[in-house]
Automatic annotation (TrEMBL):
Residues 42-96 are annotated as: Disordered. The lineage of its organism: Eukaryota, Viridiplantae, Streptophyta, Embryophyta, Tracheophyta. GO terms for molecular function: carotenoid dioxygenase activity; metal ion binding. This is Carotenoid cleavage dioxygenase 4. Pfam families: RPE65. Its cofactor is Fe(2+).
Length: 582
């Protein structure tokens, strides 16, 4: 099913728009479109590469405790390309285990070695956690070397990036999305930089650290196949009965993204509530705790809330396995959660990863991830099918006939069935989608044929018409070889939209770019007046850097390069917060 063959739109209870279609917070919003037809379906090429082989001989490793001294630990050297991690029985922390814990861990080992071992490369930790996907230890605030150029004054603040970093080497199957959340922050002040890496101290992280081993099963890799799913489900129930964990305290990883609203910073993962974190003046990262917003937020929240910088409001949603399958809500400028708005037009469960907002509407693409229990039972594969879409921006528009329309810039993943198994086969297109609210017709136009993801804009243009989009180049996914700048305005002419690009160099890979405006408070400033920032890792030398690129220049010129004191594994989404907000 095409990702935009059905879309759901609900009006936003926005303080700036007096014409609110939701007449009562407890009533469902008006639905303008329940089904649409698709025009101009793009033809996307699929990149392919041979399945990697796993060598039979594996190196040994030691499990060491993280250093407690104030001095930074030694830089972690990247492993050679041919070297893969050993299977983990592994514990980083040595603790005296109780008899029930020892018994349950033995059952876990039996499941992982005999009932459902990681036989596929997509869930084999020796393959998944090789090279720069391997986890690193925490690093306290450490001064960095500015090796090229100078850091612009508008970067005074902190860039923080989230990503999976397993606390313990996996006992069995492991997917790239399964690791504990770790934040990598670079605090900039007066041209100097301090780097720090810290785990988000989630409930899962804390109980497993105390136990000295993994307790909760891996969601993306632990439930493939009927026998393995039944065994791990039973083991999780036994651990819960034994008092090893309480699911009501949350089981999320907080490993996906970050958001700043209500003057607070949050680490997010869509399977749990937000975890509030804060940056100290010396550049350290502290976890404040899991936030249920005075009991008004429960179960979970999207990892991609939308923050309107004009009003200070944040818009979000959650999904669930029982009706209503989708619930929409917002936070006011002070961070207070407002009433839930159930979306009853969503007729089946769907794992919605992202959505878009305009000044008047919230747009939820249906469907991004669907449940496939038959595949789990009969095929031994994942219980979900995935079409992960990142919404870049959306805005309201009136067409030539005077009809209201919604324009969306978003990612459409071609061959989405490979997302959980073979990410290197994924090809993602940045597209412009036009929804005519009168006729219900949806038209789509690719902005480029290149394999792109992690597309971002100037945050000041969220929900408003923008001209420029910046995206990461996947060659192949999930490694990022460079960034591009795109001109949205030429899409209707069916032209290539890429204006500029910056490649990171041979065997150098980055992540999601983030745009930082030079003068965010100047309404007359050009939309592209600012800088793109990203972490980049050189697999030739094993070193990581923080790059600053001029977003206005024709080649996205590098204006500053900061050598980091520790390797930064490839991760997910990041955020820049200015000094005045910190």
């Amino acid at each position: 099913m095409d990702s935009f063959s059905s879309s759901f739109l609900s009006s936003i209870p926005h303080t700036k728009v007096p014409n609110i279609l939701i007449r009562h917070p407890s009533s469902p919003p008006r639905i303008y479109i329940s089904s649409v037809r698709i025009e101009d379906k793009p033809q996307g090429a699929i990149n392919s590469s041979p399945t990697p082989t796993i060598p039979s001989s594996l190196p040994t490793s030691q499990n060491t405790k993280a250093p407690k001294s104030s001095s930074p630990p030694p830089t972690t050297e990247i492993r050679p390309k041919s070297t893969l991690l050993p299977p983990a029985s592994g514990r980083r922390y040595k603790t005296q285990q109780s008899l029930p814990s020892t018994f349950l861990n033995t059952l876990d080992d039996i499941i992982n070695q005999f009932i459902d071992p990681p036989t596929r490369p997509s869930v084999d930790p020796r393959f998944i956690l090789s090279e720069n996907f391997a986890p690193v230890e925490e690093l306290p605030p450490t001064e960095c070397e500015i090796e090229e150029g100078a850091l612009p004054s508008c970067l005074d603040g902190a860039y923080i990036r989230n990503g999976p970093n397993p606390q313990f080497l996996p006992r069995g199957p492991y997917h790239l999305f399964d690791g504990d959340g770790m934040l990598h922050s670079i605090r900039i002040s007066n041209g100097k930089a301090i780097f720090c890496s810290r785990y988000v101290k989630t409930y899962k992280y804390e109980i497993e650290r105390e136990a000295g081993s993994s307790i909760l099963p891996n969601v993306f890799s632990g439930f493939n196949g009927l026998l393995g799913s039944a065994a791990r489900g039973s083991l999780a129930a036994a651990r819960m009965i034994a008092g090893q964990f309480n699911p009501s305290n949350g089981i999320g990883l907080a490993n996906t993204s970050l958001a700043f609203f209500g003057n607070r910073l949050y680490a997010l993962g869509e399977s749990d509530l937000p975890y509030e974190v804060k940056l100290t003046p010396n550049g350290d990262i502290q976890t404040v705790g899991r936030n249920d917003f005075e009991g008004k937020l429960f179960m979970s929240m999207t990892a991609h809330p939308k923050v309107d910088l004009e009003t200070g409001e944040a818009f979000a949603f959650r999904y669930g396995p029982m009706p209503p399958f989708l619930t929409y809500f917002r936070f006011d400028s002070k961070g207070n959660k407002q009433a839930d708005v159930p979306i009853f037009s969503m007729l089946r469960p769907s794992f919605l990863h992202d959505f878009a907002i305009t000044k008047k509407y919230a747009i939820f693409p249906d469907i991004q991830i669907t449940m496939n229990p038959a595949e789990m039972i009969l095929g031994g594969g994942s219980p979900v099918g995935l079409n992960l879409i990142h919404a870049t921006n959306a805005w309201d528009e009136v067409n030539e006939d005077g009809n209201e329309a919604i324009i969306i810039v978003a990612l459409n993943i071609i061959s989405a069935e490979h997302t959980l198994e073979r990410m290197d086969l994924i090809h993602a297109l940045v597209e412009m989608i036009r929804i005519d609210l009168k006729t219900g017709v949806v038209s789509r136009q690719p902005m480029s044929a290149r394999n792109l993801d992690f597309s971002v804009i100037n945050p000041n243009y969220l929900g408003k018409k923008n001209k420029y989009v910046y995206a990461a180049i996947g060659d192949p996914m999930p490694k990022i070889t460079g960034v591009v700048k795109m001109d949205v305005s030429v899409t209707q002419d069916r032209r290539e939209c890429i204006l500029a690009s910056r490649m990171f160099g041979p065997r150098s890979y980055g992540g999601e770019p983030f745009f930082v405006a030079t003068n965010p408070d100047d309404p007359n400033a050009d939309e592209d007046e600012g800088y793109l920032v990203s972490y980049v890792h050189d697999e030739n030398t094993g070193e990581s850097r923080f790059l600053v690129m001029d977003a206005k220049s024709p080649n996205l010129d590098i204006v500053a390069s900061v050598k980091l004191p520790q390797r930064v594994p490839y991760g997910s989404h990041g955020l820049f917060v200015r000094d005045r907000d910190l």
